[in-house]
Amino acid sequence: MKYCDQCGGTLSLKIPDNDDRPRHVCDVCELIHYRNPKIIAGCIPVWENQVLLCKRAIEPRHGFWTLPAGFMELGETTTEAALRETLEEANARVELQGLYALMNLPHVSQVYMMFRSRLLDLNFSPGVESLQVKLYKEEDIPWDDLAFSTIRHTLRFFFEDQQREDYRLRVGDIVKGRDGFGYISSPQIK
Amino acid sequence: MKYCDQCGGTLSLKIPDNDDRPRHVCDVCELIHYRNPKIIAGCIPVWENQVLLCKRAIEPRHGFWTLPAGFMELGETTTEAALRETLEEANARVELQGLYALMNLPHVSQVYMMFRSRLLDLNFSPGVESLQVKLYKEEDIPWDDLAFSTIRHTLRFFFEDQQREDYRLRVGDIVKGRDGFGYISSPQIK
Predict the structure, then answer these.
(1) pLDDT tens sequence across A45-102
(2) Could you give the CA distance from residue B147 to residue B159 in angstroms, rounded to a whole number?
(3) CB–CB contact A71 B34 (8 Å)
(4) Among A87, A150, B68, B127, which is disulfide-ready with B86 (CB 3.0 to 4.6 Å)?
(5) What distance in Å separates the CA atoms of residue A48 and residue B102, rounded to the nearest whole number?
(6) Could you confirm whether domain B38-185 is CATH 1.10.10.60?
(7) Closest by Cα among A159, A125, A143 to A49
(8) Which residues of B touch A171 (CB under 8 A)?
(9) Under DSSP, is residue B150 helix (H, G, I), strand (E, B) or coil?
């Protein structure tokens, strides 16, 4: 960020009054430009013992598999966003069943919200951002070709819980450890 | 938004290729400026049968009561944000116990995430954004002087569940009805 989006003036990093961290403040109109994490909403579309995955036609992670999910838009709810992304990426209609995973990615300032869902019919097909859309049984999931660690952990939790038929909300963080990025259950929740 | 924050060029509203809605696109460098909903994270600090409320020293809703909550910052997790806001607004230390309410406010593109929490000690005091910080029993909650409908509904659910000693996650939306803004359980979740 270099210029004020309201007046075009140059921005300087400074700590505003009554604040505790540097913000981009306009040198001309003094507007403070706040930046905040983004929400990625999506779902786990389930048909019998299978889960619908999408092969990405876009960067990042072109050619890798993911659950339908994407950036929440202004003016919508998280559940609307999850349904919209599922329709856009997989032309799939689902019924949401509840929030299943809330994962923070502080290194990229993202928050994933993944919902459990029931696929309503088999008339799915690749949307413009997908190369392929396919139902996978647990044993066939392309674990080494998943696009994001959030997706890997969401799927892993889902299949664990599915065996017990007891689904519980996971709240955690994807953080860098000794062996790369991994999931930890939220350390602030006791 | 009128100017590109990267090059200072003027912005025009247009629908980018492979997109379905107007974005602010720079006339000079063609950068697309996405805007997304913001997360407000906070908690319900509980001490025995009392809940800690803060009287707001800032606009909006100066002088009205709220639970500690505020905009999530870049680089933090939702749980870290809830703890930080509780410390900033009430100088209060809590232990989070789980996500309790996820409320969408599509008309202002906000998502509230409220956690249940246990107040760890009674050494709380007003932070710079609070006029007063006080423990309230259910019967003394200033229902007519609460700052936001999200706070009113979160507290109402909390006291209902406290009686049953069974706390369940609420996922819903604050939307405009015939009598003003009210809470509805998320219509996308069946």
Answers:
(1) 999 999 999 999 999 999 999 999 999 999 999 999 999 999 999 999 999 999 999 9
(2) 18
(3) yes
(4) B68
(5) 28
(6) no
(7) A159
(8) 78-79, 98-99
(9) helix
CB contact at 8 A, A100 and A44? yes
Put simply, the answer to whether B5 touches A33 (Cβ < 8 Å) is yes
Q: What pTM, to 2 d.p., does this model score? A: 0.96
Q: Where are the domains of chain B?
A: 1-35, 38-185
In sequence order, what are the residues at sequence separation of 6 or more whose Cβ sits closer than 8 angstroms to the Cβ of residue B32? B16, B23, B24, B25, B26
Q: What is the pLDDT of residues B4-62, one digit of tens each?
A: 999 999 999 999 998 999 999 999 999 999 999 999 999 999 999 999 999 999 999 99
- CB-based contact, B109 to chain A, within 8 Å: yes
CATH code for the part of the protein at B1-35: 2.20.70.10
What's the rounded Cα separation, in Å, for the pair B130 and B55? Answer: 5
